[in-house]
Amino acid sequence: MRIHYVQHVPFEGPATIANWAKTRNHALTATHVYQNQSFPSLSEFDWLIIMGGPMNIYEENKYPWLASEKKFVRQSIDAGKTVIGICLGAQLIADVLGAKVYANKEKEIGWLPVELTPEGMASTLFGSLPRKFIAFHWHGDTFGIPDGAVHLAKSDGCENQAFLYADRVLGVQFHLESTRQSVNALVLNCEEELISGKYIQESRTMLSVPDDDFHQLNHVMFSILNRLPIPTE
Fold first, then answer.
1. Is residue 48 part of a domain?
2. Is 8 a catalytic residue?
């Protein structure tokens, strides 16, 4: 299978998703929009994964590539691709599907619990996951659930954490792909966001978790990836 991902900043790459793809012999290619790289044609990939980033989806004046990326995401969905958005990526999917993206009441940064909705527990994609689990978060914006999508997960700090549209378009606000290296990179590059807040942890708290926490996080990521539609020959 051919997986293409969009990366918005140098320090937010696919992390453990790359490990998942490698162990399954999937081809992995990328567009680094911060280097002004072009998007591929729709015939060149099967899955599209849209990574996170510190920008907001409505900052097109500051990040002109956002307009062309939204068009590319919309075209990928319309072409029947499996599309996965993480954090900013989920917000971009929500936006192109007509939902509102806006500042959440509280920022969520750190290791915080996520809870499945009844619809999430009943879904094929999330139904095998624990009803509650700890995920890594780093976001200030959130999204509405697009019309026709299933609301999969929530948290105390953010009601809309994940949705599934057309059984193949997944938006996830939290980070399941994180590794110790990727969390370190976020802290290094975005530490100015670590102000006092109800759902904001100190950097030392985020960085001091045991390796088992990352393994459990990535296990949830792999479980989801293994259940998403794969194209048939």
1. yes
2. no
Instruction: Identify the domain containing residue 73 by its residue range.
Output: 2-225
- How many domains, the chain? 1
Does any domain span residue 233?
no
CA separation for the pair 14, 40 (Å, rounded): 18
Separation CA 131–CA 120 (nearest Å): 9
Active-site residue among 4, 8, 137, 175? Answer: 175
Catalytic residue among 12, 69, 87, 139: 87
CATH number at residue 112: 3.40.50.880
Average pLDDT over residues 109-119: 98
Active site residue 175: yes
Q: Report if residue 230 sits inside a domain.
A: no
The confidence band for 163, taking pLDDT boundaries of 50, 70 and 90, is very high
Radius of gyration of the chain (CA): 16
Who's near 192: CB < 8 A, 6+ residues apart?
none
Tell me the torsion sign for CA atoms 121, 82, 18, 177.
negative
